[in-house]
Specification:
Layout (H helix, E strand, L loop, with lengths): L1 E6 L4 E9 L4 E10 L6 H19 L3 E5 L7 H20 L3 E5 L1 H8 L7 H12 L7 H15 L3 H6 L3 E2 L1
Parallel strand pairs: 1-4, 4-5
Antiparallel strand pairs: 1-2, 2-3, 5-6
Helix pairs in contact: 1-2, 3-5, 4-5
């Protein structure tokens, strides 16, 4: 199975393309779609959608995995994150792909063993687990972690532990 995993954000959307299953994973590509601050939010959301759509066309994933909305103290931040998540989901839906979501704490627990791990711990563990030659940027590492969690969830027992939700 080939998947596109997305860590949505208005300015820095992490993505990862992985292939495999719960036993073996292969990284095809990963990175960050960075949108300059001078671009208005509406333009940034359009650029995120376009960037992800281009990745979908290039890599032809079977499914998409995305991080669920996390608790944030600012309503403004929550709205911005929700908009980026919507742009990501629309890109996937435009291509008829099934979309699955995972809670951030469940992803961290599955990959690092600690649901409260910080971004540096996630990036370090991703590098080790996937045998990468360099530590990926935090947003890309988060997307890789989402991808690993999704591939792990192909095991029915792990799917329930990860609270896998098809949306």
């Amino acid at each position: 199975m080939r998947i596109l995993a997305i860590d949505p954000a208005v300015r820095n959307t992490g993505y990862a393309v992985l292939e495999g299953d719960q036993h073996k994973q292969n990284v095809i590509d990963y990175g960050v779609i960075s949108i300059p601050a001078k671009i208005k939010q509406s333009g940034a959301l359009s650029a995120v959608r376009t960037g992800l759509s281009n990745l979908i066309k290039q890599y032809e994933p079977d499914e998409v995995a995305v991080e669920a909305i996390i608790f944030v103290q600012s309503a403004r931040t929550a709205i911005s994150m929700g908009a980026a998540r919507a742009a990501s989901m629309i890109a996937a839906a435009d291509h008829g792909l099934d979309i699955y979501e995972y809670a951030p704490k469940k992803i961290k627990k599955a990959v690092v063993g600690n649901g409260n791990a910080d971004k540096a711990q996630v990036a370090f563990m991703i590098r080790a687990l996937l045998g990468l030659s360099e530590t990926p940027p935090h947003d890309a590492a988060d997307a890789l972690a989402i991808g690993l969690a999704h591939l792990s969830a192909s095991d029915p027992l792990k799917a329930s532990l990860l609270d896998r939700k098809k949306i």
